[in-house]
Amino acid sequence: MKSRKEQQIEEILLRRYDRYYRLAFGYVKNQQDALDIVQESACRAIRECGKVRNTEYMETWVYRIVVNTSLEFLRKQKREDLTEEVIELHPPSGDGKEELEMIFSRWTLRDVLEKLSPKEKSVVMLRFFEDCRLEEIAQITGENLNTVKARLYRALRKMRTGMGEKNGR
């Protein structure tokens, strides 16, 4: 028989599954890995839900589990020293000017996010992709509110600088 907390966690997981998946995918950039992370996070949440003291924070607690599981996955992946994908470069046709312009105009948000530290990336993703308030982000990450604010502003400054440099400003 399931406890009340287990039932609450299962309801939260079902209701927010898409958000947890998007968050994990933002870290790992791979559908299968993101699905694995969400599944592992769900198992951890159900297994550990008895430790939650205040049930009104269960949603942010699950976000924290997804963030931590994603970061653990990335650290493990780095340790395993996976082989890098090889990108074939084709010689440009003609003088290559058009191809170079096309390559340099492909600045995406993903490229900008990759330049951030994992902690900065977490704050940005939670704030802008998951619409979390700064107080919620502080709870999810286990950081002081002022630390979260500073990290967010530093990340936004880095992102602006990176985009400005890439766009030739």
Automatic annotation (TrEMBL):
One Pfam family linked to the record: Sigma70_r2
Gene3D superfamilies in alphabetical order: 1.10.1740.10, Winged helix-like DNA-binding domain superfamily/Winged helix DNA-binding domain (1.10.10.10)
InterPro entries named among the record's database cross-references: RNA_pol_sigma-70-like (IPR039425), RNA_pol_sigma-70_dom (IPR014284), RNA_pol_sigma70_r2 (IPR007627), RNA_pol_sigma70_r4_t2 (IPR013249), RNA_pol_sigma_r2 (IPR013325), RNA_pol_sigma_r3/r4-like (IPR013324), WH-like_DNA-bd_sf (IPR036388)
Keyword Transcription regulation recorded: yes
RNA polymerase sigma-70 region domain residues: 17-79
Keyword Chloroplast appears in the UniProt entry: no
CDD domains associated with the record: Sigma70_r4
Domain RNA polymerase sigma factor 70 region 4 type positions: 109-159
Similarity-based family: Belongs to the sigma-70 factor family. ECF subfamily.
Protein name: Sigma-70 family RNA polymerase sigma factor
Species the sequence originates in: Anaerotignum lactatifermentans
